[in-house]
Amino acid sequence: MSLFFIASKVLKIFLIPLWQFVLLVAAGQLASWIKWRRLSRFFITMGCILFLLYSFIPFGQALLRPLENYAPTPSQEMIARAEGIIVLGGFTGSGIISADRQAPQLSSSAERFVTAIALHKKSPYKPIYFTGFSGKLRPQGWSEDETIERLLSDLQMPLSAFHFERQSRNTAENAQLTYQMIQPESDQKWILITSASHMMRADLSFQKAGWPPMILLPVDYNTSPDRSETLFSPTIGFRIMKTVFHEYVGILFYKLTGRL
Length: 260
Known about the structure:
Rossmann fold
């Protein structure tokens, strides 16, 4: 396990919007106990402002929309010419629950898996590579590849049509290890499937790993192209802001460490 991977998981804790709110309120309470009243008011006020700002849906969507608009949906002609399909992990649910219940779990990013299966139905001869072992700091239960294999088996899909990269822990490793597996020719076109918000970092990571230009197929959208359907919701807003922080800080972190 690399120091980069551990550091990214520790940093991730402070990027969770709910934790930011909780830490500000806790800091305000602590400052109040030690009679630093101005500092206490500052922390409490900042916590309330962040809560309202993150709950205002247009704010978060305005930040997320450029990421989700990074790649337009490719045409059917482009998809038909592709050599094969690569699906980034991150769409399986709890490995512990999957193992304990003997039932594969999917996360909110399940469109990655569903889209891959739909493409297989249309073009069963195209190889599909699922890449990813686990993004957890301490993985337990079923790994991503084990969960996907069980899902395919339950769907009575031919496992010979699917391939697995079973070691990667993050997007940079997804790109590097699948490149080593496939060794694509410079004139080949491969489809890359991942969540729309993650596509920019994924595409840049694959470019860095030496892949020829990919056919980008974004899924799992959180925004419409140009409008917001809801104005205020803490549940939706905090979820969107979690994705915003995860992706923008992830891109910055990757650039600073030479992974983009």
